[in-house]
Amino acid sequence: MPKTKVSLDVTNLNNFVYDMSHCIKCKGCNWVDHTYMPGIKFSTRCPSATKEIYDSYGAYGKMRIGLALNEGKLKFTDELLKILYECTLCGACDVGCKRNLDLEIELTLEALRVKAVADGAGPMPEHKKVAANIAKTHNRYGAKHNERKSWLPVNVKPAAKADVLYFPGCASSYRHKEIARATAKILGSTKTPFTMMKDEWCCGNVLYSVGMIDEAKKLAKRNIEAIKATGATVLLTSCAECYRMIKVDYPKILGIATKDLGFEVIHIVEFVDRAIKNGSLKLTKPVNLKLHYHDSCSLSRQSEPWTPWKGERELWGVVKPSLERRRGSNGIYDLPREILSSIPGVKLVEGIRKRENAWCCGAGRGAKDAFPDFTKWTAEQKLVEVREIGAEAITATCPYCKESIAGAAATAGDNFTVLDFSEIIAQAISR
Ligand code: SF4
Ligand code: SF4
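Above: the input record for the complex with iron/sulfur cluster. Below: its predicted structure, written as tokens.
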């Protein structure tokens, strides 16, 4: 094999030809790791392939589609766009594939969407509507921009300047204000002064996810400058999607490393962990719940920091300089479990598919906007599993997970309590 120059740049699908052409169709991207597989039930990890059954919906199918598109042997059609976008970019396929082969499946899926937009085929009409909302109102819903901080309780006054900048994001500012309020209660309880941006805009995760790379880059640059202008050293988010977008995708699309962003990005889970360890937070009030913790993809397998890489691929596919792969194992899994189980009254019940093998909620990365039935089906499958393990409540670390799981439970007439992680912590605070 001749030496080839290669990088992780998602704007050029050629960078992923090796990955696409070395897929051996083993379907490790769809099957849960065999050691954890309980039987035929709950044995798959890819919502897209599991729902649609056709191979083209699995990562293995998308790799072949990508090769054919790259070689000009296939053209975008409506069905092809459905295959590419009826997928939450949850990363389950990526970590599954890297158990064996270290192919960059997630990046290839992202590069395919960038190509779909560059070729004038994507994104879906619903995504264009969300993008238009963001351009006009700076939030994904098209809600009034001047109501973005309407969640703030009257007795909570963000500081003009502080080390911690709270970034609630669109979902917690407009649709799930209870999450932003619970986060403010946690901050108040630890006596942590926090500031907010004068003019907070959407993080833009949907723009990047659907392949609108130019718009996403513009927003990323604007937001990074606005964050730095606050003087804060820590950006705190209570939304897993904002967390992944700012911590991982901003550096990825701007060609820098997470560590060079100029500020640290933390999720409320990490903040609570630090506060418990430094003694400023005590969770002593009982919360009596038989609780299932849902691993939100963007805080778990998709949350590892980004480091840019470019080099050469040599014989046997060896890359030089060596590439530190993002395999999902260093995502945030233990912290929320340790924190929740320390609360008196909480009995944590593990799912069958968990951690790197967790089943996605079905909402993220533009999937719910364009394919709400797919999201509903995916969230219903989550509930089937939760019923099986006997949990009475579910918690996650992302407003999008809360919304899709709670929506499916309501439709099914289930009595599950669905609460965000921050809400449970707020309940457990004694003062
Ligand atoms: S796990 Fe990787 S190699 Fe195996 S079928 Fe899926 S994408 Fe292909
Ligand atoms: S990102 Fe998730 S939904 Fe999309 S192909 Fe991979 S496992 Fe399936």
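Notes for the reader.
Residues 23-29, 59-60, 63, 96-97, 101, 103, 105 surround iron/sulfur cluster (ligand 1) (CB under 6 Å).
The first helix runs from residue 17 to 21.
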